[in-house]
Write a structure and sequence with these properties.
10 helices; TerB-like; elongated; about 180 residues; mainly alpha; single chain
Length: about 180
């Protein structure tokens, strides 16, 4: 039980099981709200424990609220780019780590990249809205750096799918870059 996260994982799983085993009793106490609260809290604790187990219990190396906007956008775009072809490939995750470290000097764990890639906040629509909202706050150089880094991540597994090409084009468009900007003309 010394492993970080194991307690949260077990507690969360127990709460979820209790929620379903005693669903009728919980519903009698406070309707579906109590049942749902127990299950959701249990699931959240289980996910927190699983993330802590995957990261070794370390705190995230980089918190979005602590990093400059350009670095935050870079991480969000690259993480989402790893799943553009619906398959998060190890080579892509390693490339994100390498690029992020090279461009920012900060480390980011593979687990944090996967969480960012799969998280609801990074779904295509939300990402496009997010990029459209922050695009004017980024310099041309920051936008180009993000687009070029995304291209490297997409090519990391040595195969570029139509989904990845489409994702790249959507990011470039949302960042308000022209093809000539991306081609550095």
């Amino acid at each position: 039980m010394d492993k970080p996260g194991i307690k949260f994982l077990i507690l969360g799983a127990v709460l979820v099981v209790i929620g379903f085993v005693f669903q009728d009793g919980l519903a009698a106490i406070g309707g579906d709200t109590v049942f749902l609260a127990v299950v959701v809290i249990g699931a959240a604790l289980a996910v927190l424990g699983a993330v802590q187990l995957m990261t070794g219990g370390e705190k995230a190396e980089v918190g979005a609220e602590e990093m400059p906007l350009g670095n935050e956008v870079l991480l969000k775009v690259l993480a989402q780019g790893t799943r553009a072809d619906t398959n998060i490939h190890e080579d892509e995750v390693a490339e994100v780590q390498r690029i992020y470290r090279e461009l920012t000097g900060d480390e980011v764990s593979a687990a944090n990249i996967r969480v960012a890639a799969l998280g609801e906040h990074y779904e295509d629509q939300s990402l496009r809205r997010y990029l459209a909202g922050v695009s004017d706050k980024l310099t041309r150089d920051e936008k180009l750096r993000i687009a070029q880094a995304l291209g490297q991540v997409i090519k990391a597994d040595e195969r570029v799918s139509p989904n990845e090409t489409g994702f790249f084009n959507q990011v470039v468009e949302a960042l308000k870059l022209s093809p000539s900007d991306v081609a550095d003309l």
